[in-house]
Specification:
The structure is a single chain. The protein has 7 helices and 9 strands. The protein has a 6-stranded mixed β-sheet with strand order 5-6-7-3-8-9, sandwiched between helices. A 3-stranded antiparallel β-sheet has the order 2-1-4, covered by helices on one side. It starts with 5 loop residues before the first strand and ends with a helix.
Length: 255
Amino acid sequence: MTLPLLTLRAVSKRFDNGVEAVGRVDLEAQEGEFVSLVGPSGCGKSTALRIIAGLVAPSAGMVEFPCGRPELGFVFQDPTLMPWADAATNARLPLDLKGVARAQAQARALRALHRVGLEGFEKAYPRELSGGMRMRVSIARAIASEPKLLLMDEPFAALDELSRQALNDDLLKLAREDGITVLFVTHSVFESAYLSSRVVVMTPRPGRVAAEVLLSPPAASRDVSWRMTPDFADGARRVSDALKSAMQAAQGPGP
């Protein structure tokens, strides 16, 4: 049996102010999977990603990488670019921090920018780029380090629908070409149904796994036309139904 790339075992997080954000989450992700986390605001989705990344320590439970900790990239909701640096320098940042030789780091940063559709914008500053382009720089920065695990925290939430759909398609292509495992936080049922091989539905805070929804066809078969198919509509409906059930169960029986 193939070992998972990532395993969470009864992971919980209680902050110093007493708020329990995550409550005993069990989760696995296989190599090459695209897993979305959906749930109400404040249910601990973003906290779970930060725990996986090592940015936040769990209060209880274990985060395990059975095959060894993979190279990891993180894309936040805000692109968090350095305003004084051009796109290439922003994309090169994680490589510079790791001490990669400048020529090699620059070449990898430029390649990453080209792969996300920003050829010709290498010397552009964040203020000169649209919101979608700034997010592309953020994704380029994440993939420049050639991660095997990519964590994405609502990266497209602030974008218009056309930009969001274009980035969805580009993300699927990048993940497929590089064999990246993606954990993707979103509030959008439709986005999760389009991108994911599996959607993990979480309860209101403290976030727990309420349901997992398996989706098809494989990501390689998904394109703009698939958004209009009964299969896509059925997947979105199943995710929506699971989310509604999780919310109702958390509220308890009515009067």
